[in-house]
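Could you join me in thinking about how sequence relates to backbone shape in a protein? To get us started, please write out a protein record for me. Would you write everything just below, so we can both look at the same thing?
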Amino acid sequence: MKYCALIALMILLFPAAIIAKGTAKVSGIVMDQDNNPIEIASVKVQGKATGTVTDLKGHYSLTVSSEDSVVIVYSMLGYNTKKRVLRNPQGEITLNVVLLNTGIELGEVTVTETKRQTGMTEKIKPNGAKLMPDASGGNIEALIATQAGVSSHNELSSQYNVRGGSFDENIVYVNGVEIYRPLLIRSGQQEGLSFINPDMVQEIGFSSGGYEAKYGDKMSSVLDITYKKPERLEGSVSASLLGTSAYVGYASKHFSMTHSIRYKTNRYLLGGLDTKGEYDPSFLDYQTYLNWTPNKRWEIGFIGNLSQNRYNFIPKDRTTKFGTMASVQEFKVYFEGQERDLFQTYFGSGNITYHLNPYNDITFIYSAFHTKEQETYDITGQYWLSSIDGSTSDGSTSSETTSEDQTIGVGTYMEHARNYLHANVQNYSITGSHKVKSNLIKWGLEFKKEFIKDKLREWEMRDSAGYSLPHTNNEVELIYSLASKNEIRSDRYSFYVQDTYKFSSNLGLFTLNTGVRGSYWNWNKEFIFSPRASVALIPRFNENLTFRAATGVYYQAPFYKEFRDTTTVDGNTIVTLNKDIKSQRSIHFVLASDYKFRTLGRPFKFTTELYYKKLNNLVPYNVDNVRVSYYGKNMASGYATGLDMKLFGEFVQGTDSWLCLSLMQTEEKINDKWIPRPTDQRYNISLYFSDYFPGNKKWKMNLKASWADGLPFGPPHSGREEMVFRTPPYRRVDIGMSRQLIDNENGDYRGRFSRHIRNMWLGMDVFNLLGINNVNSYYWVTDVYNNQYAVPNYLTSRQINVRLLIEF
């Protein structure tokens, strides 16, 4: 009995002895090399089943036994595994760990490669835009135009098309606030500065389809800009033949501010066009971003913008040669009159953010936009259409004029416009963000007030060989006349809610984003509902791969131009506002993959995206230069499908380049007839290449090239069914050479003057290096045989630009 009692006592006391031996609680944060928390990282004890995962803030907590040696393993897909050895751990231990990315971080990058793209929005850094040769003056949109699925056919314009969509189908945000652009601008010559100031940009998010529910009602793409908060006193000054800009930023413990002023002129570029005259364009812009954080709970921000674009033009003459090798025509025009345009825009946005705790915050935003626009011109032109090789329009050849020019058409045209527009948009919104375990929930409510007033009067008269067109026996008629006087006041209401959920399985790491968006417009009493979803997988069998898929319903809510219904009777066009207009709809289906690899010891990434967009309730439109003119009615359906591929990486060690190839087809069905949409660009190849001189990185070369298929076109003021022709391919190469005169980036300051300068670059650009005459639009004339000719309006020729960039 004594032995039995002793054995029983030992059995009872053995667990207590183990407990007495002790346990330890290990907790901390798992971060990446940028000190960002890593969620759903695995934390476990080596050789045992004990383990846990980190939360959305990277926090973890784990209980281990107090042994002589405990090995804790930290791992996460896309990061290098790390181990920590604890010797006889006791009590509570705080252990913060940094996991390095499996790829090597690039020294100077444009697209962020340290984080995986698990959504449909690609993060882009604006560094590459500083030294990029750009005829538009360094706009961020020039960088976007080099991305896969994006195209631009006019170097004078900052507008771009995405996957068969029009200019109007791209939504732009700055710090979460939607940005509007002038509405009356009809050509790249009139365009001034883009709203986005590249000196103030910190981060760019761009999606060419399948984007989240938090983004508004547009059918093609989202450009999401974040302005920077400086951490110290900084500044920059730049100057070139295209204009100047100055930027300054300042920061204290609780306050930061940035100010920037830009001036641009297209006089130098426009001097290379066929139409000669006195060009006097001037574009002035001032922006500021203020941010105040009185404590950890509150954050207050303000963005302000004042912009004025003036375009004054007195044309003198124009000579354009076109045709083929066998038949060359020459178009000469002598002008009288002038054009005077003015575009003034004012924008302000204020936001207040309250951080309840590290997992919850609420933001209130108010913004206001005002634009005052006017286009006025009276221009008369006397033109001669000649055949240089002596061939006539009826196919015969004059033996008497084979070595001389033969006039085959003469005429006169007059263009008149008095267009005025005022628009005010006010926006009130509240948004929230909440982190719950592995979920990130975002929501928002928005109320928008719009007031738009326009008065348009345009007409055009043509006289060919003494006959007014269209020709009648009884009276003289105008070939085109438009009169419009309208006013609209309306309110819009919208909401969204979305959830991003990350989880790990045997297949790999999943990121699932689902959400819905709803909007109501009291003008046409329409409510639209947009469900959207995307999923991404980083497979365990190959962490260098990422698979993505997305689908959703996207609406193009009408905004002024879409519901202007035009009716033409006997050449007179009258504009009324269509209250029966409905939102255009696009259903996106996107499949994508990313593959990261190394070759020649350098990192690369290859991205492929296959997409199909089903289009309904389309409002057909024509494109005149960069102005989109809508039919004002939902009378078409269509589709857009294509493949986008992009190779990004260090083609040359130490600097980044990318090559994009896009294949696309888009058509619409009007009156039971399928026809190409105005943006039907069947192929597009774009290249951005950066290089250093061998052995000397102070010399840098940047090359931007584009080769894109031509777009459909037809006679002016005609229906979409008449757009049966196609412009020549757009081919352009811009190259820039830069020399770094001062480099104090690492604090190696030298000289009394240069010690105040961080960087100084002197560069020279050659625009349109190959001297290719790209066609922007056409002017149509008629000869004595009643044959019509499409006289091309060419874009800019080869030109040289000199620029200086100084950073403090």
Summary: Residues 11-20, 104-114, 392-403 have pLDDT under 50 and may be disordered.
